[in-house]
Specification:
Helix content is about 45%, strand content about 10%. It is of the alpha/beta class. The two termini are about 35 Å apart.
Protein backbone atom coordinates (compact mmCIF):
# COMPACT_ATOMS: atom_id res chain seq x y z
CA UNK A 1 0.00 0.00 0.00
CA UNK A 2 2.60 2.53 -1.13
CA UNK A 3 2.85 5.04 -3.90
CA UNK A 4 6.08 6.74 -4.84
CA UNK A 5 4.25 9.88 -5.95
CA UNK A 6 2.59 10.41 -2.58
CA UNK A 7 4.18 12.70 0.00
CA UNK A 8 5.96 11.23 2.98
CA UNK A 9 3.53 10.04 5.66
CA UNK A 10 3.35 12.09 8.85
CA UNK A 11 2.36 9.05 10.96
CA UNK A 12 4.49 6.17 9.62
CA UNK A 13 3.77 3.69 12.43
CA UNK A 14 -0.01 4.04 12.21
CA UNK A 15 0.16 3.83 8.42
CA UNK A 16 2.39 0.71 8.59
CA UNK A 17 0.02 -1.12 10.95
CA UNK A 18 -3.15 -0.22 9.06
CA UNK A 19 -1.45 -1.23 5.79
CA UNK A 20 -0.63 -4.64 7.28
CA UNK A 21 -4.25 -5.08 8.39
CA UNK A 22 -5.43 -4.08 4.92
CA UNK A 23 -3.13 -6.60 3.19
CA UNK A 24 -4.33 -9.36 5.54
CA UNK A 25 -7.99 -8.44 4.92
CA UNK A 26 -7.45 -8.38 1.17
CA UNK A 27 -5.71 -11.76 1.24
CA UNK A 28 -8.69 -13.30 3.03
CA UNK A 29 -11.20 -11.31 0.93
CA UNK A 30 -12.73 -9.84 4.09
CA UNK A 31 -15.31 -7.06 3.79
CA UNK A 32 -13.21 -4.81 6.03
CA UNK A 33 -10.60 -4.43 3.28
CA UNK A 34 -12.50 -1.50 1.70
CA UNK A 35 -12.67 0.44 4.97
CA UNK A 36 -9.04 -0.30 5.74
CA UNK A 37 -8.03 0.88 2.27
CA UNK A 38 -9.76 4.23 2.93
CA UNK A 39 -7.98 4.41 6.28
CA UNK A 40 -4.60 3.83 4.60
CA UNK A 41 -5.19 6.58 2.06
CA UNK A 42 -6.35 9.02 4.77
CA UNK A 43 -3.31 8.31 6.96
CA UNK A 44 -0.90 8.65 4.05
CA UNK A 45 -2.32 12.02 3.00
CA UNK A 46 -2.85 13.51 6.46
CA UNK A 47 -0.03 16.09 6.88
CA UNK A 48 -0.05 16.51 10.68
CA UNK A 49 1.32 14.36 13.49
CA UNK A 50 -1.35 12.51 15.49
CA UNK A 51 -0.56 12.85 19.20
CA UNK A 52 -2.40 9.63 20.08
CA UNK A 53 -4.26 6.83 18.34
CA UNK A 54 -7.72 8.06 19.38
CA UNK A 55 -7.19 11.26 17.38
CA UNK A 56 -7.22 9.14 14.21
CA UNK A 57 -11.03 8.87 14.33
CA UNK A 58 -11.21 12.28 12.66
CA UNK A 59 -9.90 10.72 9.43
CA UNK A 60 -12.06 9.15 6.75
CA UNK A 61 -12.26 5.36 7.03
CA UNK A 62 -11.16 5.26 10.68
CA UNK A 63 -13.86 4.64 13.25
CA UNK A 64 -13.80 3.63 16.92
CA UNK A 65 -12.99 0.03 16.02
CA UNK A 66 -9.82 0.78 14.05
CA UNK A 67 -8.86 3.46 16.58
CA UNK A 68 -9.11 0.93 19.44
CA UNK A 69 -6.94 -1.51 17.49
CA UNK A 70 -4.37 1.26 17.00
CA UNK A 71 -4.44 2.08 20.73
CA UNK A 72 -3.73 -1.57 21.63
CA UNK A 73 -1.08 -1.92 18.93
CA UNK A 74 0.64 1.28 20.07
CA UNK A 75 0.64 0.10 23.70
CA UNK A 76 2.12 -3.25 22.63
CA UNK A 77 4.76 -1.53 20.50
CA UNK A 78 5.75 0.80 23.36
CA UNK A 79 6.13 -2.19 25.66
CA UNK A 80 8.37 -3.97 23.14
CA UNK A 81 10.51 -0.86 22.68
CA UNK A 82 10.74 -0.19 26.41
CA UNK A 83 8.95 3.16 26.11
CA UNK A 84 6.86 4.23 29.09
CA UNK A 85 3.21 5.10 28.55
CA UNK A 86 2.59 8.88 28.64
CA UNK A 87 1.07 10.11 31.89
CA UNK A 88 -2.45 11.46 31.78
CA UNK A 89 -3.69 14.50 33.64
CA UNK A 90 -6.06 13.75 36.53
CA UNK A 91 -9.37 15.51 35.78
CA UNK A 92 -10.58 18.08 38.23
CA UNK A 93 -13.18 16.69 40.63
CA UNK A 94 -16.62 18.22 40.47
CA UNK A 95 -17.10 20.79 43.18
CA UNK A 96 -19.76 20.25 45.80
CA UNK A 97 -19.65 16.47 45.74
CA UNK A 98 -21.54 15.36 48.84
CA UNK A 99 -20.44 11.70 48.75
CA UNK A 100 -16.70 12.34 48.77
CA UNK A 101 -15.05 11.91 52.17
CA UNK A 102 -11.50 12.29 50.85
CA UNK A 103 -10.42 15.75 49.76
CA UNK A 104 -9.53 15.77 46.09
CA UNK A 105 -6.48 17.48 44.69
CA UNK A 106 -6.27 18.80 41.16
CA UNK A 107 -3.28 18.90 38.92
CA UNK A 108 -3.19 21.70 36.41
CA UNK A 109 -1.74 20.79 33.01
CA UNK A 110 1.26 22.96 32.21
CA UNK A 111 2.90 23.29 28.81
CA UNK A 112 6.42 21.95 29.01
CA UNK A 113 9.34 22.92 26.82
CA UNK A 114 9.90 20.24 24.20
CA UNK A 115 13.25 18.49 24.56
CA UNK A 116 14.00 15.65 22.11
CA UNK A 117 15.33 12.33 23.36
CA UNK A 118 19.12 11.99 23.26
CA UNK A 119 20.36 10.77 19.83
CA UNK A 120 16.81 10.52 18.48
CA UNK A 121 15.91 11.65 14.97
CA UNK A 122 14.61 15.02 16.17
CA UNK A 123 17.76 15.47 18.28
CA UNK A 124 20.03 14.94 15.28
CA UNK A 125 17.91 17.04 12.94
CA UNK A 126 18.02 20.02 15.31
CA UNK A 127 21.82 19.82 15.36
CA UNK A 128 22.02 19.57 11.57
CA UNK A 129 19.61 22.46 11.02
CA UNK A 130 21.43 24.66 13.55
CA UNK A 131 24.73 23.88 11.81
CA UNK A 132 23.14 24.96 8.53
CA UNK A 133 21.81 28.09 10.24
CA UNK A 134 25.33 28.98 11.41
CA UNK A 135 27.00 28.26 8.07
CA UNK A 136 24.54 29.72 5.59
CA UNK A 137 22.34 32.14 7.53
CA UNK A 138 18.79 32.14 8.92
CA UNK A 139 16.98 32.06 5.57
CA UNK A 140 18.76 29.14 3.93
CA UNK A 141 16.49 26.14 3.36
CA UNK A 142 18.68 23.06 3.10
CA UNK A 143 17.60 20.11 0.90
CA UNK A 144 17.00 16.78 2.58
CA UNK A 145 19.79 15.17 0.57
CA UNK A 146 22.31 17.63 2.07
CA UNK A 147 20.83 17.67 5.57
CA UNK A 148 20.85 13.90 6.19
CA UNK A 149 24.66 13.44 5.97
CA UNK A 150 25.12 16.26 8.50
CA UNK A 151 22.67 14.69 10.96
CA UNK A 152 23.62 11.00 10.68
CA UNK A 153 26.55 11.10 13.18
CA UNK A 154 24.21 12.40 15.90
CA UNK A 155 21.47 9.73 15.68
CA UNK A 156 21.26 6.07 16.61
CA UNK A 157 18.54 5.19 14.11
CA UNK A 158 19.27 5.34 10.34
CA UNK A 159 17.83 8.06 8.14
CA UNK A 160 17.11 5.72 5.22
CA UNK A 161 14.69 2.85 4.88
CA UNK A 162 16.49 -0.45 5.22
CA UNK A 163 19.33 0.90 7.34
CA UNK A 164 20.46 -0.57 10.62
CA UNK A 165 20.26 1.20 13.93
CA UNK A 166 23.23 1.35 16.28
CA UNK A 167 23.34 -1.96 18.12
CA UNK A 168 19.70 -2.80 17.36
CA UNK A 169 19.84 -4.65 14.07
CA UNK A 170 17.23 -3.80 11.45
CA UNK A 171 15.52 -0.43 12.04
CA UNK A 172 11.71 -0.42 12.35
CA UNK A 173 11.47 3.27 11.43
CA UNK A 174 13.83 5.98 10.22
CA UNK A 175 15.21 8.92 12.15
CA UNK A 176 13.77 11.22 9.44
CA UNK A 177 10.34 10.86 11.06
CA UNK A 178 11.68 13.31 13.66
CA UNK A 179 11.22 16.08 11.08
CA UNK A 180 7.45 15.67 11.37
CA UNK A 181 7.76 16.16 15.12
CA UNK A 182 9.78 19.34 14.65
CA UNK A 183 7.28 20.70 12.14
CA UNK A 184 4.29 19.88 14.33
CA UNK A 185 5.90 21.75 17.22
CA UNK A 186 6.76 24.75 14.97
CA UNK A 187 10.50 24.21 15.45
CA UNK A 188 11.19 23.71 11.74
CA UNK A 189 9.51 24.68 8.50
CA UNK A 190 9.75 23.40 4.97
CA UNK A 191 9.87 25.06 1.57
CA UNK A 192 8.82 23.36 -1.62
CA UNK A 193 8.37 20.03 0.15
CA UNK A 194 12.06 19.01 0.27
CA UNK A 195 13.93 21.93 1.89
CA UNK A 196 13.99 22.74 5.60
CA UNK A 197 14.95 25.56 7.95
CA UNK A 198 14.76 26.24 11.70
CA UNK A 199 12.21 28.66 13.10
CA UNK A 200 13.17 31.17 15.78
CA UNK A 201 11.82 28.82 18.46
CA UNK A 202 13.74 25.95 16.87
CA UNK A 203 17.01 27.87 17.12
CA UNK A 204 16.55 28.24 20.89
CA UNK A 205 15.82 24.51 21.38
CA UNK A 206 18.71 23.55 19.09
CA UNK A 207 21.10 25.63 21.20
CA UNK A 208 20.09 23.59 24.25
CA UNK A 209 20.67 20.36 22.31
CA UNK A 210 24.17 21.52 21.38
CA UNK A 211 24.86 22.31 25.04
CA UNK A 212 24.00 18.69 25.86
CA UNK A 213 26.73 17.53 23.46
CA UNK A 214 29.16 20.04 24.96
CA UNK A 215 28.57 18.80 28.51
CA UNK A 216 29.10 15.21 27.35
CA UNK A 217 32.29 16.18 25.46
CA UNK A 218 30.79 14.79 22.25
CA UNK A 219 31.16 17.94 20.15
CA UNK A 220 34.10 17.92 17.72
CA UNK A 221 36.42 20.90 17.47
CA UNK A 222 35.16 21.70 13.96
CA UNK A 223 31.51 21.64 15.04
CA UNK A 224 32.29 23.65 18.16
CA UNK A 225 33.91 26.31 16.00
CA UNK A 226 30.88 26.42 13.69
CA UNK A 227 28.41 26.81 16.55
CA UNK A 228 30.57 29.48 18.16
CA UNK A 229 29.86 31.65 15.10
CA UNK A 230 26.27 31.98 16.28
CA UNK A 231 27.34 33.51 19.60
CA UNK A 232 29.82 35.78 17.81
CA UNK A 233 27.15 36.97 15.40
CA UNK A 234 24.69 37.72 18.20
CA UNK A 235 27.37 39.61 20.12
CA UNK A 236 28.30 41.68 17.08
CA UNK A 237 24.67 42.38 16.27
CA UNK A 238 23.97 43.53 19.82
CA UNK A 239 26.91 45.94 19.86
CA UNK A 240 27.24 47.01 16.21
CA UNK A 241 27.19 50.78 15.92
CA UNK A 242 29.23 53.32 14.05
CA UNK A 243 29.01 57.01 13.29
CA UNK A 244 27.49 58.16 10.05
CA UNK A 245 23.96 58.48 8.78
CA UNK A 246 21.42 57.37 11.38
CA UNK A 247 17.94 56.22 10.49
CA UNK A 248 16.56 58.36 13.30
CA UNK A 249 17.36 61.34 11.06
CA UNK A 250 14.43 60.35 8.87
CA UNK A 251 11.80 59.39 11.46
CA UNK A 252 10.07 62.75 11.18
CA UNK A 253 9.64 62.17 7.47
CA UNK A 254 8.58 58.54 7.46
CA UNK A 255 6.49 58.52 10.61
CA UNK A 256 8.21 55.32 11.69
CA UNK A 257 7.12 54.06 15.12
CA UNK A 258 9.87 51.43 15.25
CA UNK A 259 13.42 52.52 16.05
CA UNK A 260 16.14 50.62 14.18
CA UNK A 261 19.07 49.33 16.18
CA UNK A 262 21.91 51.21 14.53
CA UNK A 263 22.87 53.72 11.87
CA UNK A 264 22.78 52.66 8.26
CA UNK A 265 26.54 52.93 8.02
CA UNK A 266 26.95 50.12 10.53
CA UNK A 267 28.09 46.79 9.22
CA UNK A 268 25.45 44.11 9.18
CA UNK A 269 26.08 40.96 11.16
CA UNK A 270 23.53 38.89 9.28
CA UNK A 271 26.25 36.89 7.55
CA UNK A 272 27.30 33.80 9.50
CA UNK A 273 31.08 33.90 8.81
CA UNK A 274 33.57 36.28 10.33
CA UNK A 275 36.84 34.63 9.36
CA UNK A 276 38.98 36.18 6.62
CA UNK A 277 39.34 34.12 3.46
CA UNK A 278 42.75 33.39 2.01
CA UNK A 279 41.67 35.12 -1.22
CA UNK A 280 41.48 38.47 0.58
CA UNK A 281 44.64 38.11 2.66
CA UNK A 282 46.81 39.87 0.05
CA UNK A 283 44.29 42.44 -1.25
CA UNK A 284 45.15 46.07 -0.57
CA UNK A 285 43.08 49.19 -1.17
CA UNK A 286 45.35 49.99 -4.11
CA UNK A 287 44.06 46.81 -5.79
CA UNK A 288 40.51 48.20 -5.74
CA UNK A 289 39.10 50.74 -8.19
CA UNK A 290 38.83 54.07 -6.38
CA UNK A 291 36.37 56.93 -6.78
CA UNK A 292 37.78 59.86 -4.76
CA UNK A 293 35.43 62.28 -3.01
CA UNK A 294 34.12 64.90 -5.42
CA UNK A 295 34.89 62.83 -8.53
CA UNK A 296 31.48 61.16 -8.78
CA UNK A 297 27.76 61.85 -8.58
CA UNK A 298 25.33 59.83 -6.44
CA UNK A 299 22.31 58.72 -8.48
CA UNK A 300 19.18 57.02 -7.17
CA UNK A 301 18.19 54.04 -9.33
CA UNK A 302 14.48 53.13 -9.36
CA UNK A 303 13.31 49.67 -10.39
CA UNK A 304 11.20 49.96 -13.55
CA UNK A 305 8.44 47.92 -11.86
CA UNK A 306 7.99 50.77 -9.37
CA UNK A 307 6.86 53.13 -12.15
CA UNK A 308 3.44 51.78 -13.10
CA UNK A 309 1.87 54.81 -14.76
CA UNK A 310 2.33 58.41 -15.87
CA UNK A 311 0.96 59.49 -12.47
CA UNK A 312 3.73 57.55 -10.68
CA UNK A 313 6.34 59.13 -12.94
CA UNK A 314 4.96 62.63 -12.28
CA UNK A 315 4.96 61.99 -8.53
CA UNK A 316 8.59 60.81 -8.62
CA UNK A 317 9.60 63.85 -10.64
CA UNK A 318 7.86 66.21 -8.22
CA UNK A 319 9.22 64.66 -5.03
CA UNK A 320 12.73 63.78 -6.27
CA UNK A 321 13.92 65.34 -9.51
CA UNK A 322 12.42 68.74 -8.74
CA UNK A 323 14.35 68.68 -5.44
CA UNK A 324 17.69 68.09 -7.15
CA UNK A 325 17.85 64.29 -6.77
CA UNK A 326 19.15 62.58 -9.89
CA UNK A 327 17.27 59.40 -10.71
CA UNK A 328 17.37 56.64 -13.32
CA UNK A 329 14.80 53.97 -14.04
CA UNK A 330 16.13 50.50 -14.92
CA UNK A 331 15.37 46.88 -14.01
CA UNK A 332 16.77 45.73 -10.65
CA UNK A 333 17.16 42.06 -9.72
CA UNK A 334 17.32 42.77 -5.97
CA UNK A 335 15.74 45.72 -4.19
CA UNK A 336 13.39 48.41 -5.45
CA UNK A 337 15.77 51.35 -5.01
CA UNK A 338 19.54 51.58 -4.78
CA UNK A 339 22.28 54.15 -5.35
CA UNK A 340 25.13 54.19 -7.85
CA UNK A 341 28.27 56.29 -8.04
CA UNK A 342 28.94 57.67 -11.53
CA UNK A 343 32.21 59.39 -12.38
CA UNK A 344 31.74 63.03 -13.38
CA UNK A 345 32.35 63.79 -17.07
CA UNK A 346 35.14 66.27 -16.25
CA UNK A 347 36.97 64.09 -13.72
CA UNK A 348 40.07 61.99 -14.30
CA UNK A 349 37.97 58.88 -13.53
CA UNK A 350 35.33 59.53 -16.20
CA UNK A 351 36.14 56.28 -18.03
CA UNK A 352 35.38 54.14 -14.97
CA UNK A 353 32.04 52.29 -14.93
CA UNK A 354 29.06 52.98 -12.70
CA UNK A 355 29.29 51.15 -9.36
CA UNK A 356 26.52 50.09 -6.98
CA UNK A 357 26.88 51.55 -3.49
CA UNK A 358 26.32 49.48 -0.37
CA UNK A 359 22.77 50.74 0.23
CA UNK A 360 19.47 49.26 -0.95
CA UNK A 361 15.77 49.80 -0.24
CA UNK A 362 13.15 47.05 -0.42
CA UNK A 363 9.65 48.54 -0.54
CA UNK A 364 6.40 46.70 0.12
CA UNK A 365 2.83 47.75 0.72
CA UNK A 366 1.28 46.06 3.73
CA UNK A 367 -0.92 43.85 1.54
CA UNK A 368 2.14 42.86 -0.52
CA UNK A 369 4.00 41.92 2.67
CA UNK A 370 1.11 39.73 3.84
CA UNK A 371 0.92 38.01 0.45
CA UNK A 372 4.69 37.38 0.35
CA UNK A 373 4.61 35.86 3.85
CA UNK A 374 1.82 33.54 2.79
CA UNK A 375 3.42 32.28 -0.45
CA UNK A 376 7.02 32.09 0.82
CA UNK A 377 8.49 34.92 -1.29
CA UNK A 378 9.22 36.84 1.92
CA UNK A 379 12.08 34.57 3.03
CA UNK A 380 13.37 33.94 -0.49
CA UNK A 381 13.71 37.69 -1.09
CA UNK A 382 15.56 38.17 2.19
CA UNK A 383 17.98 35.39 1.29
CA UNK A 384 18.71 37.03 -2.08
CA UNK A 385 19.38 40.39 -0.41
CA UNK A 386 21.88 38.70 1.92
CA UNK A 387 23.46 36.83 -1.01
CA UNK A 388 24.06 40.11 -2.83
CA UNK A 389 26.17 41.31 0.09
CA UNK A 390 24.35 44.55 0.93
CA UNK A 391 25.09 45.59 4.51
CA UNK A 392 22.81 48.65 4.69
CA UNK A 393 19.29 47.52 3.90
CA UNK A 394 16.18 49.63 4.40
CA UNK A 395 12.97 47.61 4.51
CA UNK A 396 10.03 49.93 3.85
CA UNK A 397 6.54 48.66 4.74
CA UNK A 398 4.20 51.27 3.34
CA UNK A 399 0.74 52.17 4.59
CA UNK A 400 -1.67 49.91 6.45
CA UNK A 401 -4.22 47.37 5.33
CA UNK A 402 -6.35 46.09 8.24
CA UNK A 403 -8.16 43.57 6.01
CA UNK A 404 -4.93 41.93 4.78
CA UNK A 405 -3.51 41.88 8.31
CA UNK A 406 -6.65 40.31 9.78
CA UNK A 407 -6.73 37.62 7.06
CA UNK A 408 -3.14 36.61 7.74
CA UNK A 409 -3.25 37.26 11.50
CA UNK A 410 -1.85 40.14 13.50
CA UNK A 411 0.57 37.83 15.33
CA UNK A 412 2.07 36.62 12.05
CA UNK A 413 2.56 40.17 10.75
CA UNK A 414 4.07 41.36 14.03
CA UNK A 415 6.43 38.38 14.05
CA UNK A 416 7.49 39.14 10.48
CA UNK A 417 8.20 42.80 11.28
CA UNK A 418 10.24 41.79 14.32
CA UNK A 419 12.18 39.24 12.27
CA UNK A 420 13.04 41.91 9.70
CA UNK A 421 14.85 43.90 12.39
CA UNK A 422 16.16 41.32 14.86
CA UNK A 423 17.04 38.33 12.67
CA UNK A 424 17.66 39.87 9.26
CA UNK A 425 19.39 43.00 10.58
CA UNK A 426 17.43 45.29 8.22
CA UNK A 427 16.30 48.81 9.11
CA UNK A 428 12.51 48.82 9.19
CA UNK A 429 10.63 51.96 8.11
CA UNK A 430 6.84 52.29 8.02
CA UNK A 431 5.88 55.44 6.10
CA UNK A 432 2.15 56.10 5.77
CA UNK A 433 2.12 56.66 1.99
CA UNK A 434 4.10 56.48 -1.25
CA UNK A 435 4.74 60.24 -1.03
CA UNK A 436 6.31 59.77 2.42
CA UNK A 437 8.50 56.97 1.00
CA UNK A 438 9.74 59.30 -1.73
CA UNK A 439 10.56 61.97 0.85
CA UNK A 440 12.53 59.35 2.79
CA UNK A 441 14.44 58.44 -0.37
CA UNK A 442 15.19 62.11 -1.03
CA UNK A 443 16.65 62.65 2.43
CA UNK A 444 18.64 59.41 2.24
CA UNK A 445 20.15 60.52 -1.06
CA UNK A 446 21.06 63.95 0.30
CA UNK A 447 22.65 62.37 3.38
CA UNK A 448 24.70 59.95 1.27
CA UNK A 449 26.00 62.82 -0.84
CA UNK A 450 27.06 64.62 2.34
CA UNK A 451 28.84 61.75 4.13
CA UNK A 452 30.33 59.55 1.41
CA UNK A 453 33.96 60.19 0.64
CA UNK A 454 36.24 57.85 -1.27
CA UNK A 455 34.48 54.79 -2.65
CA UNK A 456 36.38 51.59 -3.49
CA UNK A 457 34.93 49.23 -6.09
CA UNK A 458 35.77 45.52 -5.93
CA UNK A 459 37.03 44.47 -9.40
CA UNK A 460 34.84 42.06 -11.36
CA UNK A 461 37.78 39.68 -11.62
CA UNK A 462 37.58 39.07 -7.84
CA UNK A 463 33.84 38.43 -7.83
CA UNK A 464 32.88 34.81 -8.40
CA UNK A 465 29.49 33.17 -8.37
CA UNK A 466 30.36 31.38 -5.13
CA UNK A 467 31.86 32.95 -2.04
CA UNK A 468 31.18 36.60 -2.86
CA UNK A 469 29.82 37.34 0.62
CA UNK A 470 32.94 35.90 2.26
CA UNK A 471 35.16 37.89 -0.10
CA UNK A 472 33.40 41.13 0.77
CA UNK A 473 33.46 40.38 4.49
CA UNK A 474 37.18 39.67 4.33
CA UNK A 475 37.90 43.01 2.64
CA UNK A 476 35.68 44.88 5.10
CA UNK A 477 37.38 43.17 8.05
CA UNK A 478 40.78 44.44 6.84
CA UNK A 479 39.55 47.93 5.91
CA UNK A 480 36.52 48.69 8.12
CA UNK A 481 36.37 52.39 7.17
CA UNK A 482 36.35 51.82 3.40
CA UNK A 483 33.08 52.34 1.53
CA UNK A 484 32.85 49.29 -0.78
CA UNK A 485 30.94 49.02 -4.04
CA UNK A 486 30.62 46.67 -7.01
CA UNK A 487 29.97 47.22 -10.69
CA UNK A 488 26.44 46.97 -12.02
CA UNK A 489 27.38 43.87 -14.03
CA UNK A 490 28.66 42.18 -10.86
CA UNK A 491 25.47 43.18 -9.04
CA UNK A 492 23.40 41.50 -11.77
CA UNK A 493 25.45 38.32 -11.48
CA UNK A 494 25.44 37.91 -7.70
CA UNK A 495 21.78 38.91 -7.33
CA UNK A 496 20.33 36.80 -10.12
CA UNK A 497 17.95 34.09 -8.91
CA UNK A 498 19.78 31.38 -10.80
CA UNK A 499 23.13 33.08 -11.31
CA UNK A 500 24.88 31.06 -8.61
CA UNK A 501 23.58 27.69 -9.83
CA UNK A 502 25.91 25.24 -11.49
CA UNK A 503 24.90 23.40 -14.67
CA UNK A 504 24.26 20.27 -12.61
CA UNK A 505 21.97 22.15 -10.22
CA UNK A 506 19.98 23.57 -13.14
CA UNK A 507 19.64 20.04 -14.54
CA UNK A 508 18.30 18.79 -11.19
CA UNK A 509 15.78 21.64 -11.10
CA UNK A 510 14.66 20.77 -14.61
CA UNK A 511 14.06 17.17 -13.56
CA UNK A 512 12.10 18.24 -10.47
CA UNK A 513 9.66 20.33 -12.52
CA UNK A 514 7.87 17.08 -13.38
CA UNK A 515 5.21 15.99 -10.93
CA UNK A 516 6.40 13.04 -8.87
CA UNK A 517 10.14 13.70 -9.25
CA UNK A 518 11.42 14.34 -5.74
CA UNK A 519 14.93 15.48 -4.88
CA UNK A 520 16.05 11.90 -4.16
CA UNK A 521 14.67 10.67 -7.49
CA UNK A 522 16.25 13.55 -9.40
CA UNK A 523 19.64 12.79 -7.80
CA UNK A 524 19.30 9.11 -8.75
CA UNK A 525 18.45 9.95 -12.37
CA UNK A 526 21.26 12.51 -12.63
CA UNK A 527 23.69 10.02 -11.10
CA UNK A 528 22.98 7.53 -13.87
CA UNK A 529 22.52 10.09 -16.67
CA UNK A 530 24.72 13.09 -15.74
CA UNK A 531 23.58 15.28 -18.66
CA UNK A 532 20.20 15.93 -20.32
CA UNK A 533 21.53 14.58 -23.62
CA UNK A 534 22.49 11.25 -22.06
CA UNK A 535 19.01 10.97 -20.52
CA UNK A 536 17.31 11.81 -23.84
CA UNK A 537 19.45 9.28 -25.73
CA UNK A 538 18.67 6.60 -23.15
CA UNK A 539 14.92 7.27 -23.28
CA UNK A 540 14.91 7.15 -27.10
CA UNK A 541 16.87 3.90 -27.24
CA UNK A 542 15.14 0.51 -27.29
CA UNK A 543 14.43 -0.53 -23.73
CA UNK A 544 15.54 2.86 -22.42
CA UNK A 545 12.27 3.60 -20.64
CA UNK A 546 12.46 0.19 -18.97
CA UNK A 547 16.01 0.94 -17.82
CA UNK A 548 14.90 4.18 -16.19
CA UNK A 549 11.95 2.32 -14.65
CA UNK A 550 14.38 -0.10 -12.95
CA UNK A 551 16.54 2.66 -11.41
CA UNK A 552 16.76 2.40 -7.61
CA UNK A 553 16.20 5.64 -5.69
CA UNK A 554 19.26 6.48 -3.59
CA UNK A 555 18.94 5.53 0.06
CA UNK A 556 15.85 3.35 -0.38
CA UNK A 557 14.56 0.15 -1.93
CA UNK A 558 12.13 1.97 -4.25
CA UNK A 559 12.36 2.10 -8.03
CA UNK A 560 11.56 5.04 -10.28
CA UNK A 561 8.56 3.06 -11.52
CA UNK A 562 6.83 2.69 -14.92
CA UNK A 563 4.46 5.64 -14.50
CA UNK A 564 7.20 8.15 -13.75
CA UNK A 565 9.60 6.75 -16.37
CA UNK A 566 6.86 7.07 -19.01
CA UNK A 567 6.23 10.66 -17.91
CA UNK A 568 9.96 11.42 -18.19
CA UNK A 569 10.05 9.93 -21.69
CA UNK A 570 7.06 12.00 -22.82
CA UNK A 571 8.61 15.19 -21.48
CA UNK A 572 12.23 14.79 -22.55
CA UNK A 573 11.64 13.26 -25.99
CA UNK A 574 8.69 15.41 -27.12
CA UNK A 575 9.29 17.58 -30.20
CA UNK A 576 6.87 20.27 -28.98
CA UNK A 577 4.65 21.12 -26.00
Amino acid sequence: MSNDDEPECANPLFFKWVSEWYEAARASNAKTQHTLKKACVSLQRYPLLLENAQDAVQLQGIGPGIADRLVKKLASWRKEQGIAEPTTVVPEAASGSANSDTPTTTRQKTQRLYVPRYRSGAFALLIGLLKTYCLYGPDYFIPKSELVPICEPFADAPFHVGGTSHGSGYAQHTAWSGMKTLESKALAERQGGVKFCLTEEGVQIAKKVVEVLRTRNELSDDDSQVFSKLEERNAVRAGSSSPGIHSSDFDSVAGDPVQPRAGIMSRSSSAPFTRQSSATAHIELDDLMSYPAGSYDVILVVDNREVHSTADRALIERELESQGVRIEVRPLTVGDYLWIARAKPDSAHRHQPDVVLDFVVERKRMDDLCASIKDGRYREQHARIHATGFTNVFYVVEGSDPDAVSRLGEAAVSSALSRIQVIEGFHLKQPPSFEATLRLLRQLTESLIDVLECVYAIPDSLIGLKGFQELKRGIRARFPQAQLAISFDAYDVVSNKSGSLSVGEVYLRMLMTLRGVSADKALSIAGCYPTPQLLIDALKADGGVKAVDELIVDGSCRKIGPVLSKRLAEFWTANSF
